[in-house]
Amino acid sequence: KMLSVQMYLTLCSFIILSSSAQELRHKPVGTKPVRLFTDEDLAKYNGQEDGQPIYMAVKGVVFDVSSGKDFYGKDAAYNALVGKDSTRAVAKMSLKPDDLTSDTSGLTEEQMKALEDIFINVYKAKYPIVGYTSRRILNEDGTPNKNFKPEDQPNFTIKEEF
User: Fold this and answer.
1) Which of 97, 111, 131, 139 could form a disulfide with 62 if both were Cys (CB 3.0 to 4.6 A apart)?
2) 102-132 b/e with 16+ CB inside 10 Å = b?
3) Are the C-beta atoms of residues 144 and 138 closer than 8 Å to each other?
4) What is the rounded distance in angstroms from the CA atom of residue 112 to the CA atom of residue 138?
């Protein structure tokens, strides 16, 4: 027998909704794949291209700061911080080229405390985490860092990344 158009559409809708519900059951809600960023990867998200997301890393955590485009976009006051791990610059509240690095050696206790405060109350509070720098996830020899702990991403496991 032939199906009426309405029955056919109802059946199609049911199949689509059923498969969508099944996919949702297998994937935790609100999780996105986590990326590992090399310095070269991160440099592509430096706020210079319209329509391209703007990323910056602090303490090896890569944040999407696109919503702060007025601060981090092209020609904006803090554009020097994006497209790289700017941990030292954040700790020192500096935009000097020598401070635009992940290196925290020689920072004072006060600067380290300021870094932690800004990391938690500004970056983690305001911007989504999109990944981690390779320095955070990998050892110097390129092997996975077994001590790696993701920030607020309970569904992330290193196995998904390698």
Assistant:
1) 131
2) beeeebeeebeebbeebbeeebbeebebbbb
3) yes
4) 23
Token digits of residue 38: 């090399």
Sequence spans of domains, the chain: 36-137
- Sequence-distant (6+) residues with CB within 8 A of 19 are none
CATH number of the 36-137 domain: 3.10.120.10
CA gap 64, 55 in Å, rounded: 5
**Chain centroid offset of residue 133 CA:** 9
Q: Are 99 and 92 in contact (CB under 8 A)?
A: yes
Exposed, middle or buried, 62 (CB in 10 Å: 0-12/13-18/19+)?
buried
How far apart CA 25 and CA 115 sit, in angstroms, is 39
Give the model's pLDDT for residue 27.
Answer: 40
In the chain, which stretches have pLDDT less than 70?
Answer: 1-34, 152-162
Tens of pLDDT, residue by residue over 125-153, are: 999 999 999 888 888 888 888 887 777 55
**Contact (Cβ atoms closer than 8 angstroms) between residue 87 and residue 156:** no
List, in order, residues 6 or more apart from 74 with CB less than 8 Å away. 47, 48, 50
